[in-house]
Specification:
- The chain is mainly beta.
- It is built from two helices and 41 strands.
- The strands form eight sheets. Strands 1, 4, 5, 34, 37, 38, 39 and 41 form an eight-stranded antiparallel beta sheet that branches.
- A hairpin with a 2-residue loop joins strand 24 (271-275) and strand 25 (278-281).
- The longest helix has 10 residues, at 301-310.
- The radius of gyration is 26 Å and the shape is elongated.
- The relative contact order is 0.16.
Length: 514
């Protein structure tokens, strides 16, 4: 008598994201053992990330230096201007035109040798900070084509710190981490980025406040109306920063801090940052400061930390948050890899669903008021959009956890793999499968021919021009063969202008020898 077919259905494959942390032997099938160039779409399916497109046709003046800083100026009348730093210069993006900002102060043109600026804005002006440099300001209410030193402003008073980290919050500018002082916080007068003496301006030295001995200020943040001061291994929190003369110490946290200034991102409901232990959330850190730290990067933590330790300059690790895409992305420039974290809904253990991105390699991020998510690339300010990396195709890869079909001592003969997909029609799908913990040892391709998709909830999810080549839904399958005690299946799909998501994967086997 022939053995019956044994089906296993993986509904919403990779719904829990990438898991490189737990043992693959008995991992929940909702996790993925590979999720490369993937996101979790708004319907909970694993799908392809978007790519990048140039925001302007012309190369940044004189070269292909990376845009390591992008920011937005929004004037009191609502006019938006994107500004950036690359090639030791400052630029502005107006529509699709990139132009260099020239020096318009009254002294010697600043000598700039690095683009590792942090930009903050107040009253439409954007102020650039970098350790050892005079802070620079672009104020479109004064000039739309030039910048100057803050200390060249007509109302300049006091001494502005040449700090490396800055924050615009509570109506003033906060600055820290100079060449000679990593303990003192300098703050401007109210609504006056150029006034640092008199009024409500001042300084705060926290050398004696660190809960666990000496540290240095690495980054600044604002959360729930409180001023957050990140050390490298500690965090200090002040309440009442609206009036610095009466603000007071609210909390301190030991043994966790921020190791990369530009990974600090306010996501509205929390403040994310890169610590020695992974990507942490401030609210969770406060709740669990007496317990072992649990991070949102828990499921990829050892791998992520290995990449972080490999970085030539950890200070140039960047983090970006897109409210529109509901994601936090961290770019590691030495390794040329990004870690993606979906923020729509956390997993039960408080971690975020994760994936790895390759090929895209941004050097900075910025989410503009209109929802555009900007990426800094070599010579270009770019947008996270379309499904090409500029004009190049890239590959999305997913692989399941290992499947033992409920009987780990019996071989299973692989008869068929079916994938239900939503995405571009006439798409070549490469199925990958392996046996007994030898991942993706075999492959077979088939062409996905779907039918016109049905709109979700009565409204087409992909009705805009970004998906104009047509969205299909359907099933593609192969009859692979081979056998083993445990089986892994995966998909590799070339992304070239069109999205694709995986709705489910069905695996069919017959019982073989014991």
């Amino acid at each position: 008598m022939a053995s019956p077919i044994v089906p296993v259905s993986i509904i919403a494959p990779g719904f829990y994201g990438l898991n490189l942390q737990d043992s693959p032997v008995d991992l929940d099938q909702k996790y993925a053992l590979e999720a490369t160039n993937c996101v979790i779409d708004k319907s909970g399916r694993i799908g392809a990330r978007k790519g990048w497109a140039k925001s302007h046709a012309t190369l940044a003046a004189t070269g292909t230096s990376d845009f390591q800083c992008i920011h937005e100026s929004i004037t009191t009348t609502g006019t938006s201007t994107i500004v950036g730093a690359a090639n030791n210069k400052l630029f502005k993006l107006s529509g699709s035109t990139l132009s260099e900002l020239t020096y318009g102060g009254g002294g010697t043109t600043p000598t700039i040798t690095d683009d590792n600026w942090q930009a903050v804005s107040i009253n439409g002006a954007v102020i650039f900070f970098q350790r050892g440099y005079d802070p620079l300001v672009f104020d479109p209410s004064v000039s739309t084509t030039t910048y100057k030193r803050v200390n060249e402003h007509g109302s300049y008073a006091g001494t502005i710190a040449k700090g490396h980290c800055a924050l615009s919050a509570f109506g003033r500018i906060w600055i820290a981490d100079t060449d000679t002082d990593g303990q003192t916080l300098t703050y401007s007068d109210l609504l006056s980025y150029m006034v640092y003496t008199g009024g409500t301006s001042g300084t705060l030295n926290i050398a004696q406040v660190w809960p666990n001995g000496a540290d240095k200020i690495m980054a600044l943040g604002e959360f729930n109306g409180k001023l957050i001061i990140f050390g490298k291994t500690q965090i200090v929190i002040y309440k009442g920063p609206e009036d610095p003369s009466t603000m007071s110490l609210d909390d301190t946290i030991s043994n966790v801090g921020c190791i990369a200034r530009d990974t600090v991102q306010n996501i509205g409901s929390d403040l994310l940052f890169l610590s020695h232990g992974g990507v942490a959330a401030l609210s969770r850190t406060i709740q669990e400061k007496s317990a072992p730290l649990r991070t949102i990067s828990r499921n990829v933590n050892d791998t992520l930390i290995a990449y972080v330790d490999n970085e030539a300059t950890q200070a140039k690790i960047r983090g970006g948050y897109s409210p529109k895409e509901q994601m936090y992305v961290m770019a590691l420039p030495t390794s040329k890899i990004c870690f993606y974290f979906d923020l729509r809904a956390m997993l039960p253990d408080g971690s975020a669903r994760a994936a790895r991105w390759t090929g895209i390699n941004p050097r900075s991020f910025y989410s503009a008021l209109d929802g555009t998510f900007y990426l800094g690339k070599a010579g270009y300010i770019c947008e996270y959009s379309t499904y090409n990396d500029n004009t190049a195709a890239y590959y999305m890869r997913w692989a399941s956890a290992w499947i033992d079909f409920g009987n780990p001592i019996q071989h299973s003969i692989l008869k068929k793999i079916m994938a239900t997909l939503i995405g571009a029609n006439n798409q070549v799908i490469t199925f990958r499968y392996g046996f007994d913990y030898i991942s993706n040892s075999r492959s077979q391709s088939a062409t996905f021919i779907g039918t016109a998709g049905v709109a979700e909830y009565g409204t087409s999810e992909y009705s805009n021009s970004e998906y104009s080549s047509g969205i299909s839904t359907g099933v593609v399958s192969i009859n692979p063969g081979g056998e083993g005690q445990v089986i892994q299946v995966g998909l590799e799909i070339q992304i070239d202008g069109d999205m694709i998501s995986v709705q489910r994967v069905d695996v069919f086997t017959k019982n073989g020898r014991i």
